[in-house]
């Protein structure tokens, strides 16, 4: 095996595969991808079958991080597992598919960190470049093709499976009856209303970033291999230069690989800062090689509050997907022979993106925070939605592992996920536990460190529950809370419930954020690590302001933009 390459991409995840695939467009350029997980996710049924996504939690394809969720003086919760993909394609092999960019105004805030190259207008083409949009059944406006013309990732609208029609209809009716809008386009920088989700699924199969590497013989992928330390040249200049990476092969033998041009770190939001820390780049005493105060700081994520309603028969997919019996047998057979039906569904057909100003305006703590913010809503100063609300028409234990699964009662359920999109808490951290590259880092998401997030979440749950329990159509479908009643009447009881049941939205980012200089962030606007030559970070770690929706489209965008930044630096290779 060669040990010298033009570029080495460390971490073959979502962004890593994008970068490697784009750099490989010059067939003379040799690229190594070092990946800790499997290299053949396309052969794994549980990964490729859309409706099996929830089964991947805590599987051998999951890093299953132990994570501090909440770290408040009166309440701390540490739990396991927190999912991240361990496979070529990374978390794009384990995620829940929604393909959505975010609000223009939120990306414009990135310019304060990365400069003028990081605004919605300049980034817009990169949001669309990864995808090819499909509407095989011709159900949507042809104009929506702009979402993706020729990228390697096929995306399509939620499959609208017939079993879910009564659920969809009731939910849409309830949404409209409360005066809320519907939308069919959230990719133009504005997102508001109930939307038929677009997913990284097409023709019954998951689309993951390893698709960028298909037919790229100049990319060598080394699987089951753990990157453990960066190697720097001791050369005469004042700025150290990254020259290589030491990695542990599957039998734990260390091997050092050398990059003729650059190393690109794409190990994801927890492992990228860990590798920097292991290599002596970090804050305080961790910065033995290079003090860099933001490594492993500024960790952001969306807190979510998942909860469950029991539904009247005919509205949930539990009998079709979760219970052994003729309905499930038929679904399995339909998927096997035709690639369609409930198993081909990402299960998240409808996504709501509301603001709840009227409710928040009644809360003194909120109005005080708004006044202190120059009269602008702290959660959505430019009209961004306050929440993403996902409606899964069955019991989903991937979101609700704290509560007993309703086994054997033959019932039908709905899991509602309330996701606070622009939380004010911004103090998560990633730290080393020890010096062994195989040890997981210590992750603290530190949700609700700002108490106003707790209030907002409480109100978001009340808002959507009122819509579901009282809205036209849905009020005839919802039977009641499962497994116990939500304490909707009391503020204190609601906040306690939020602390006890909230979860990661699976959108952590920001742990090696962009910044103007080393005192402001870890990488510059070209994604180069401040204080080191020949080293870039291209993954969710560099995100300075969390997107106000799910983040895979943003991560693919960063991969595409990052690849172009590298190409621009090497005109001899990419003229
Ligand atoms: C369960 C789940 C559901 C989600 N649902 C959605 C959704 O519906 N919509 C959406 O937009 N987003 C969703 N996301 C978020 C989105 O998928 C991620 O933010 C994104 O994929 C992260 O990409 P990344 O490149 O930063 O990291 P990753 O894709 O996680 O890639 C990191 C890679 O580095 C490898 N690696 C790590 N350490 C080492 C090491 N030491 N040596 C070698 N390799 C290493 C990992 O194995 C992995 O392949 C979800 C995420 C999860 C986990």
Automatic annotation (TrEMBL):
One Pfam family cited in the UniProt record for this chain: GMC_oxred_N
Keyword Flavoprotein set for record: yes
A GO molecular-function annotation: flavin adenine dinucleotide binding
Residue ranges of domain Glucose-methanol-choline oxidoreductase N-terminal in the record: 85-108
Highest taxon of the lineage: Eukaryota
This protein's record includes keyword Flavoprotein: yes
Keywords, sorted A to Z: FAD, Flavoprotein
Classification via InterPro entries: FAD/NAD-bd_sf (IPR036188), GMC_OxRdtase (IPR012132), GMC_OxRdtase_N (IPR000172), GMC_OxRtase_C (IPR007867)
Cofactor list: FAD
Protein family: Belongs to the GMC oxidoreductase family.
PANTHER family with a match to the protein in the record: CHOLINE DEHYDROGENASE, MITOCHONDRIAL, GLUCOSE-METHANOL-CHOLINE GMC OXIDOREDUCTASE
Protein name (record): Glucose-methanol-choline oxidoreductase N-terminal domain-containing protein
């Amino acid at each position: 095996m060669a040990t010298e390459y033009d570029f080495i991409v460390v971490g073959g995840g979502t962004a890593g595969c994008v970068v490697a695939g784009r750099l490989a467009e010059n067939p003379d350029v040799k690229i190594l991808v070092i990946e800790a997980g499997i290299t053949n996710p396309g052969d794994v049924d549980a990964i490729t079958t859309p409706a099996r996504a929830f089964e991947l939690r805590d599987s051998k394809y999951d890093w299953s991080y132990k994570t501090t969720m909440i770290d408040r003086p009166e309440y701390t919760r540490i739990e396991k597992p927190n999912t991240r993909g361990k496979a070529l394609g990374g978390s794009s092999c384990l995620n829940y598919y929604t393909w959505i960019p975010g609000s223009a105004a939120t990306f414009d805030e990135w310019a304060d960190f990365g400069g003028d190259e990081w605004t919605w207008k300049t980034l817009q083409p990169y949001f669309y470049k990864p995808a090819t949009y499909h509407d095989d059944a011709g159900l949507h406006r042809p104009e929506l093709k702009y979402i993706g013309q020729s990228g390697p990732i096929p995306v399509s609208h939620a499959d609208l499976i017939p079993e879910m029609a009564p659920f969809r209809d009731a939910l849409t009716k309830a949404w409209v009856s409360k005066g809320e809008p519907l939308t069919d386009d959230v990719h133009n920088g504005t997102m508001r209303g109930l939307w038929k989700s677009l997913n990284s699924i097409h023709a019954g199969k998951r689309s993951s970033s390893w698709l960028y590497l298909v037919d790229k013989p100049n990319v060598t992928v080394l699987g089951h291999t753990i990157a453990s330390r960066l190697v720097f040249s001791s050369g005469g200049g004042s700025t150290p230069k990254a020259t290589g990476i030491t990695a542990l092969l599957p039998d734990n033998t260390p091997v050092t690989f050398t990059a003729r041009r650059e190393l690109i770190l794409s190990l994801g939001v927890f492992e990228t800062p860990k590798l920097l820390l292991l290599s002596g780049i970090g804050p305080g005493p961790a910065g033995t090689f290079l003090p860099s105060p933001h490594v492993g700081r500024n960790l952001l994520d969306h807190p979510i509050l998942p909860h469950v309603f029991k539904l009247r028969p005919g509205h949930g997919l539990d009998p079709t997907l979760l219970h052994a019996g003729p309905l499930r047998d038929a679904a399995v057979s339909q998927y096997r022979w035709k690639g369609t039906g409930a198993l081909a569904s990402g299960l998240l057909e409808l996504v709501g993106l509301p603001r709840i100003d009227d409710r928040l305006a009644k809360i003194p703590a909120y109005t005080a925070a708004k006044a202190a913010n120059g009269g602008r809503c702290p959660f959505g100063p430019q009209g961004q939605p306050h929440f993403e609300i996902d409606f899964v028409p069955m019991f989903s234990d991937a979101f609700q592992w704290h509560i007993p699964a309703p086994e054997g009662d033959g019932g039908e359920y709905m899991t509602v996920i309330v996701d606070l999109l622009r939380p004010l808490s911004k103090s998560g951290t990633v730290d080393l536990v020890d010096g062994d590259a195989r040890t997981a880092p210590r992750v603290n998401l530190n949700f609700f460190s700002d108490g106003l997030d707790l209030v907002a979440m409480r109100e978001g749950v009340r808002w959507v529950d009122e819509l579901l329990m009282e809205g036209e159509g849905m009020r005839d479908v919802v039977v009641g809370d499962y497994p116990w009643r939500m304490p909707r009447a009391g503020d204190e009881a609601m906040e306690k419930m939020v602390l006890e049941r909230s979860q990661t939205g699976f959108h952590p980012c920001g742990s090696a954020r962009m910044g103007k200089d080393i005192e402001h962030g870890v990488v510059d606007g070209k994604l180069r690590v401040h204080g080191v030559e020949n080293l870039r970070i291209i993954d969710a770690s560099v995100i300075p302001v969390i997107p106000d929706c799910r983040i895979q489209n943003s991560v693919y965008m960063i991969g595409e933009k990052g690849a172009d930044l590298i190409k621009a630096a090497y005109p001899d290779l990419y003229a």
